[in-house]
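If your schedule permits, I should be very grateful for your opinion on a structural question. Thank you for your consideration; the sequence and its tokens are set out here:

===
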Amino acid sequence: MHVYKRQGLDVLIRALETHEETVEIQRALGNLFRRRGELERATQLHQNLIARSELEPEQRRLALYELGQDYYKAGLFDRAESLLHEVAETDEYSESAYRLLLQLYEQEKEWDNAIVAAKKLSLATGDDLNGLLAQYFCELAEERMTAGFYQECAGFINQALILEKNCTRALMQSGRLRAIKNEHKLAIREWGKIVNLHPEMLTDVV
């Protein structure tokens, strides 16, 4: 029974592809395939849409965005990134595209790119994303500290604290960095700031 349903859907899709007014229906079908995990079928359908020469620019941008989501779900992050950057240049999809790019960069731990995308998202929406940006700088600081690049680490910690002056994670990292440098009194001072701000974190600081 499942085979017959699938074949019937294939016939319907081929019939729809010849009619311009069915673009929205095809897009909806592609989204349905993606939600069901049939990523290959969703990708093929959206690719076919984009290949149609009679598509309006807005319809093409929407199809590109949908295809970008297909690639993202399939783990084809390079392809998804390229398409999302393309549609992010337009007002109607900038917010959605940058939000998906942030998810992509977080998964890939590409913190530099995440910072750029978050700044552009903030410009597009007017949202205050300083807290999120501070966390991305903390991620960069953590990487540099682990690698022993302490000067770069200190720079990223400072960036985080500029964005969010009471960022607990940045203060914790600052204390650790001081301790590594044998500046123990300064380390205690940094950690003391956390306890003053958040007494419930005393155990973590100790």
